[in-house]
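Re: weekly structure request thread

Next one in the queue (214 aa):
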Amino acid sequence: MYRIIGEIVFVLILASIVLTVVALIVSRMSLNRNVWLAGSFAEILDFFYLPIKYLFYKFSDPKILDKWMVSLKNIAHKNDFQKTKKRIILAPHCMRSMDCPAHSTKEGIQCISCGKCIYERLGKDAQKYGYKLYIITGSSFVKHILRDDTIEGALLIACDYELIKVMQALKGTKIVTYGISMLNDGCYNTEVDYEKVIRAFEDFGYAETVQSVI
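Done, posted below.
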């Protein structure tokens, strides 16, 4: 009896390792091309995320894992995001000017279009394409923003680690996420490739403007 249980456990462990390795290979491939079953492989990596990340900490760089997973999740979510109508942008406060005069509220930083950073331009482009822009200083602000139950899609701008955190947090909700990675990490003076932002706007088309009820 114990032998049978041991054999079953061994097979399950072996199968888990094989599936995880395959999922990692596919996620790496997703950086350069479209891949099949992206959603299924993303689920596998989500399930084993902590032990996999520990191994990356020990033998590689955990940022690599996050980068691969963001790419895989974007492929998995792309078609569903395309179908969303009410969309928002969640962007980090670390891209704003060091002497930003804007104030913070429960909905995040309220840009006053002073022209000192990218957010004046992003705010105008977001409005043009039907997105409501939220500049957030931490994950605690997200729960206030998402009280608006009309939101269907969230375009995320952040470092890969934060993108994964938000994508995993919103998994299982009706909100579809799509991530745009920043060019650098940090608490200030971070940047995003703005061409990628515009390309995302154009690829997904115009959305219906979200009217905040928070």
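The mean pLDDT is 90. The beta strands are 87-92, 103-105, 108-110, 132-136, 153-158, 176-181.
Next request, please.
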